Amino acid sequence: MKGTILTTKTWFLIIGAALLISAGLLNFRQRVRHQTPPWDGVEWTDTNTGIIAKSIERGSAAERAWMLPGDQLIGVSLNGYKAEQITSAKDVQIYLEEARVGGQLHYLMKRPSYSPEVGAYWADLDNLGSIHKWTPRVIYINLLGLVFLFVGFFVLFKQGGQAPYALQFATFSLTAFVFLFYTPVGRYDDLDLAVAFLDNVAFILFAPLFLHFCALYPARQQLFSTRRWRAVVLYVPALLLLGFAVVIFLRDELGKVVSELQRIPVTGQLVGAFYLLGFLHFTIALVASAVLLIRTFVKANSTVVRQQVKWVVWGTLLASLLSRFFMDWSTCLAHRPIAGSQTSRSCRWR
């Protein structure tokens, strides 16, 4: 370890990393202990005609009960005999919480394709699932986050806090750890809401941080020799998206202090637009970063620099792209969680 490592900026980064790692460990403990709400596998949506099943997850309790997208929910029963009428999609979660993971629930449904004479039918859901599941994809992405964290801080402690690019590399590695490792479980208590918010903040900030690093490496210490504040332009889209994220995730909490925020309607369309813009922001930044790194690789005269660029390209970009496209994006845009909403709660950026 070099004696120059503990600069003021490095201290701030280490303290911030310690706090973020602690929150990540608490989130990991929640997931290991299966402290996650039950889920029927249905994305319910409110329409003019009633509560409609917009989509149904494969292998879920709803699919096993032969429910289909487009079916209308009329009532819910815990015992299968008397259905209680339900008027809002968000109220379904109340009954799911009552039934618990592994329990049973009975939906009184109406199918549009059935004739009026048939009327309603019972969908008997058994062995209710949970929102968070330990799948190979989740494990792979979480491991990627740990690799980013280890590599970033290995370089920082190896090179020293004043070594060129070490601090920038460690910073975007920390953001990669957060958005790859953090996984909201859908409870949306204080901890889970913070995890969901920080997960999105890290995803948004990773793009400009990585782009900034690629623009600097390896020839310069500052992006501009004069008027260095112009580098802030790289972060303007991210700052706008961060404001968007505050409204979506923290509106209810901040609304207790700033009542005007409660007037902003957080709809499914608004949330979908937020995640679409975030995805485009991430993709454009990665493409621009790749172009800068390829240019550096072609122009570099140093064998060491070329080798380092090769590792960065194959390590960072490939890992990031794999983790981004290791999912069904159309499903994610429809299923990203909204605090206090029943519009499916289980999907993350991946």
Overall geometry:
elongated
Number of helices in the DSSP assignment: 10
CATH architecture of the largest domain: Up-down Bundle
Q: N-to-C terminal Cα separation, in Å?
A: 36 Å
Low-confidence stretches: 325-350
The CATH topology assignment of the largest domain is: Rhopdopsin 7-helix transmembrane proteins
Share in β-strands: 5-15%
Query: Major beta sheet, specifics?
Result: 6 strands, antiparallel
Q: What do these coordinates show?
A:
This protein folds into two domains: 8-33 and 133-335, Rhopdopsin 7-helix transmembrane proteins (Up-down Bundle); 38-130, Pdz3 Domain, CATH 2.30.42.10. Strands 2, 3, 4, 5, 6 and 7 form a six-stranded antiparallel sheet that branches. Strands 1-8 form a two-stranded antiparallel sheet. It has helices at residues 8-32, 61-64, 92-99, 136-159, 166-181, 190-216, 236-254, 268-299, 303-324, 329-335, and strands at residues 38-39, 42-47, 50-56, 72-77, 84-85, 105-110, 121-125, 129-130. It has 350 residues and is of the alpha+beta class. Strand 4 (72-77) and strand 5 (84-85) form a beta hairpin. The protein is built from ten helices and eight strands. The model is unreliable at 325-350 (pLDDT under 50).
List the helices and strands and how they pair.
Blueprint: H1 8-32, E1 38-39, E2 42-47, E3 50-56, H2 61-64, E4 72-77, E5 84-85, H3 92-99, E6 105-110, E7 121-125, E8 129-130, H4 136-159, H5 166-181, H6 190-216, H7 236-254, H8 268-299, H9 303-324, H10 329-335
Antiparallel strand pairs: 1-8, 2-3, 3-4, 4-5, 4-6, 6-7
Helix pairs in contact: 1-5, 4-5, 5-6, 6-7, 6-8, 7-8, 8-9
